[in-house]
Recover the amino acids of this structure.
């Protein structure tokens, strides 16, 4: 890496640290999960569906502490890493729904039974948070950071009359690993901490795919899609 790059990094890192100190908190961990490519291979359903994400889940933000009592572990002024899980998971579920259904719209409440165009809904996919646990660990002797995220939701599908068709618990475990391999990465670690976002990304990707599989394999939803005449 050219020396100018090091100079740029060394100039920016203290600024980032100062901004964090001035705000009194650590910035959100950047999350950027991708939908599992197998979702695109599932057969779409000819249904217009409302997607309702329970507010507690939609707005869910989780703080996860990093233990700093191990010998050699860097000391961070703000040891809690903050993950905007709800907003990210809501976006992924909605994107998945756009692929699986003819039409999908995000609902503010279960009372919304029609779209703005007055087109009737064939059903509603409702999702609420059941459990979320994030564990962050550093192995300073080898400069390795490990993140784990156990995430589960309760998903329900309702018919057009809001009768519950099925309810299921969907769970996933995400894992992430971050290494220090360069001087620049070491400086980032010392200032802002390891990259723990991939563990949460992994959990969200796996959970969204598991939910998509549940929907695609549902005989009850298939019966709604192709009612007997």
């Amino acid at each position: 890496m050219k020396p100018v790059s090091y100079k740029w990094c060394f100039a920016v890192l203290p600024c980032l640290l100062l901004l964090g100190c001035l705000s009194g908190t650590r910035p959100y961990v950047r999350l950027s999960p991708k939908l599992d490519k197998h979702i695109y291979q599932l057969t779409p359903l000819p249904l217009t569906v409302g997607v309702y994400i329970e507010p507690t889940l939609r707005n869910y933000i989780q703080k996860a502490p990093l233990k700093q009592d191990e010998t050699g572990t860097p000391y961070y002024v703000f040891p809690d890493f903050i993950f905007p899980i709800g907003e990210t998971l809501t976006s992924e579920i909605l994107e998945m729904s756009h692929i699986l259904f003819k039409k999908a719209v995000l609902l503010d409440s279960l009372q919304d039974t029609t779209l703005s165009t007055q087109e009737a809904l064939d059903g509603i996919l409702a999702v609420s948070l059941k459990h979320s646990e994030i564990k962050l660990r550093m192995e300073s002797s080898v400069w390795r950071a490990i993140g784990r995220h156990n995430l589960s939701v309760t998903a329900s599908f309702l018919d057009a009359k809001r009768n519950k068709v099925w309810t299921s618990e969907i769970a996933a475990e995400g894992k992430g690993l971050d290494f220090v391999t360069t001087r620049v990465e070491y400086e980032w670690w010392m200032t802002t901490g390891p990259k723990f976002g991939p563990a949460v990304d992994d959990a969200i990707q796996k959970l969204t795919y598991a939910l998509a599989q549940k929907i695609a394999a549902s005989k009850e939803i298939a019966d709604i899609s192709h009612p007997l005449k």
